[in-house]
TrEMBL record, chains A, B:
Compositional bias ranges of the Low complexity kind: 1-18
Residues covered by the tRNA/rRNA methyltransferase SpoU type domain: 134-268
An MF annotation (GO) of this entry: RNA binding
UniProt keyword Transferase present: yes
Keyword set, alphabetical order: Methyltransferase, Transferase
The keyword Methyltransferase belongs to this UniProt entry's keyword annotation: yes
Protein name: RNA methyltransferase
GO BP, one annotated term: RNA processing
Transmembrane segments: none
Chain positions covered by the region annotation Disordered: 1-25
Length: 276, 276
């Protein structure tokens, strides 16, 4: 049991007082224990947000539920954003206890846990013009985070991910994404990506360096999905065959663009044509 | 002394045979010792390239001198690119010796050392149309590497860096940049960035979200420099005041774009207007 558990939030909805933790094994902060090891094995529907900028996104701009916050105690008074925590419990601890809980030196001194939303089907997308990056078998968390960040910047309706793409709610994807996985809706696509997009009335573009048509030369459909594959092998040919292929022209001899940069360029181009 | 030093390359320029290293303290591979610690304290004019894709760039597309290569011994026969090493000595070692040399587990199993080129002054830039990202006080190696990668992709004349920008020849910048710091020329700018650009006949654009003019609405000068500042504080006001300010429009409530993505978008736009 927690030696100093909160008595629950006050009935008027103002945040409850911080609870000081002195024992890394305190069950109250079990959500935050062994952060990296649990990153590896996966959590059941929980994400971990790290650092001030991501905490700020979570508390001020994200619709997702915050389950708990854990902060190095000397920082609390310099974090006015904590006033936005609602009924989420706030735990504070000395740095050494924090490091003992997390299992590594937590130099940012700030962790929050929240609930991963259920992914939406494409049928839940809004009507009208929209842009949607579709991640196909993207294994790199930094790239997935970067795609969410660009989706947020250029007003994408969401980000669609297939079953083999890296989890956007993994700690590092959230951090590299500047918190965007907590604000941009996640849509799930199954094996029949093209069928699902057709059903939703969305034109699929395959970003591929081999395409004859290049970005900047042609108008883009108002409802557009941009399929993004890994930087080496790219998108599978059958998928490209069912899409409008689209190239971002690069200099001869250069292998490829970073896939998050590719997303940024094509989403920006669509926003220029159809408005943010 | 090396227990099995090479006898020097054959006179016909074909590569010398690999030299097997069994002692992490062998002076022959001193260049590769304690990689991370030397990353921290800095090297005297030497860079370390890591992994196959960067090695390939170094040996096949970079004008820079390769000083030595060190590879985990079981990989050598699967690395045809090593035939391109010219007179650079090739050392091979078992994984455990490799890890002992590098000071950490070198899971990529491939290191190369090369010579950092002297940075060029802007007066050495070619005549005619060109695009040039200018890094102003960019502390993050990943971002600097990403800017070089985009500079390579969109045919920039080089990348200019000021004295406070992170070293593009740092191992991680080279890796994140997919080797582009080894192919794209580095130009150094001093305190009077705007004076140096004016002298070189280059129009300076300041990328800043507050600009009235936005990318996509206006033609860009044929000889154009794009000043890029840190994502939080951005460029200093006096610098913006001397430039054509230029915004990439993003959705309300979103803090900023990643600076490497910003570089990619603006370099792509310039290439569309003036050719790759």
């Amino acid at each position: 049991m927690s030696p100093a558990g909160p008595d629950g939030p006050p009935a008027d909805g103002t945040p409850a007082s911080p609870v000081r933790v002195t024992d890394p094994d305190d069950p109250a902060i079990a959500l935050f224990r062994d952060v990296k090891e649990r990153d590896r094995i996966g959590r059941q529907g929980i994400f971990i947000a790290e650092g001030l900028s991501v905490l700020t996104v979570l508390l001020t701009r994200s619709p997702l539920e915050t389950l708990a916050i854990l902060v190095e105690e000397s920082r609390v008074d310099r974090l006015p954003v904590l006033a936005e925590r609602g009924t989420a419990p706030l735990y504070v601890a000395p740095q050494a206890v924090l490091d003992g809980i997390a299992g590594f030196h937590l130099h940012r001194g700030i962790l929050a846990a929240g609930r991963v939303p259920a992914p939406r089907p494409l049928s839940a997308l809004p009507h009208g013009p929209l842009r949607l990056p579709v991640c196909v078998n993207l294994a790199n968390h930094d790239n997935v985070g970067g795609i969410y960040r660009n989706a947020a910047a250029f007003g994408a309706a969401g980000v669609a991910v297939d079953a083999t793409t890296a989890n956007p709610f993994y700690r590092k994807a959230i951090r590299v994404g500047a918190g965007a996985p907590l604000t941009v809706p996640t849509y799930a696509v199954g094996d029949d990506i093209l069928g699902e997009l057709r059903e939703a009335g969305i034109t699929p573009y395959a970003l591929t360096p081999q395409a004859g048509a290049s970005l900047g030369a042609a108008p883009l459909a108002a409802r557009a999905a941009f399929l993004l594959g890994t930087e080496g092998p790219g998108l599978p040919d059958p998928l490209i065959g069912g899409c409008e292929p689209l190239a971002i022209r690069i200099a001869p001899g250069v292998d490829s663009l970073n896939v998050a940069t590719t997303a940024g360029i094509v989403l920006h181009a669509h926003a220029l044509q159809h408005g943010l």
